[in-house]
Write a structure and sequence with these properties.
Blueprint lengths: L1 H15 L18 H24 L2 H4 L17
Helix pairs in contact: 1-2
Length: 81
Amino acid sequence: MKWILYILTIVLIVLHQDWWNWDKVDPRLFGFLPVGIWYHAAFCVAAAILLALFVAFAWPKHLESAERDPSSSEPDRSHGH
């Protein structure tokens, strides 16, 4: 699954360079929103979905279960105080 996410990341990087929309205004979304703006709005939604997939499937689980060092000077905030 991680490799699929990595490939999707590369695809989004390539799609971010929307050179095919540089000279266009049309098609307009809702009759007023130029293609470059709605393309980037859709791109941001796609990037947010990809980030959510990374968190769900590629987040390093060992970081969640790491115990705190008792000699740490930072106060323990896990009890809601």
